[in-house]
Amino acid sequence: MDSQVPVALALSLVGGLSTSIGALFVILNKAPDLKMLGLLQGFAAGLMLSISFLDLAHNAMNSIGFLKGNLWFFAGVIFFAVIVNFIPEPSVSPVSDIKEKKKSGDEGGKDMIKKHRRQVLFSGIITAIGISLHNLPEGMAVFLGSIKGLRVGLNLALAIALHNIPEGVAVALPVYFATQSKWQAFKLSTLSGFAEPLGVIIVAYLFPTNLNPEILEGLLGAVGGVMAFLTLHEMLPLAFDYAGQKQAVKAVFFGMAFMSASLYLLEISLPEHMSL
């Protein structure tokens, strides 16, 4: 099994570092306006909702039972809700209020813009945490696929890379918007991808032979709960505020469709007796 670790690490880097490609899409183009930010946030929210409910929670309930799968899922929700509760979140007025105050020459307009930037930065950091948590089991999956053979591991890594690109955008875009720093946006997006090879290391060296499949499926379900909470708590409100409810909802379903297609690629890349 040790001989598979370097191969799995290399393949996981292919998938993990594709978040950097998403960051490059952001920093090499002119800064998008608030509406574009909202649409991309909605798209990323669709990605995460699809992963959470149609993949991670669904597989957990099928693998370990409806009750246990739900318990793990809501354990993830509660866990992340507690963490977010300890992070101070700035209260922000709607975008329309900012525009009105800017037109009226209100001196508080600049302060409100700063508050909006802090809110967007907070959302970007929380998104990076959630994506990192999701990338951990992806790294585990790449390692398990590599054990079956190079072709399986390579196909899996490439499919993961495909849907990690918009995840890199989801992290880099709000950070770049809030900080105006291309380096900070690229760095945070790239770091979220490094969780993938970390997942390989965890499986390979902490419990290479004792990994209980039921515990792994439960952890995947908990990650689904984490991602569902951060999507509904952080990303959707921003998408509605910046892009408008109708446009944001369209972006959400477009993101869900995109993720469903990439999850299908993951499914056909794995042997029949393996699943994510």
Automatic annotation (TrEMBL):
Subcellular localization: Membrane
GO MF annotation: an example: zinc ion transmembrane transporter activity
Record-level GO cellular component terms: membrane
Keywords, in A-Z order: Membrane, Transmembrane, Transmembrane helix
Main localization category: membrane
UniProt membrane topology term: Multi-pass membrane protein
Keyword hit for GTP-binding: no
Membrane-spanning ranges: 6-27, 39-57, 69-87, 120-136, 156-176, 188-207, 219-236, 248-266
PANTHER family: ZINC-REGULATED TRANSPORTER 3 (PTHR11040:SF210), ZINC/IRON TRANSPORTER (PTHR11040)
Protein name: Zinc transporter ZTP29
Organism this protein belongs to: Trapa incisa
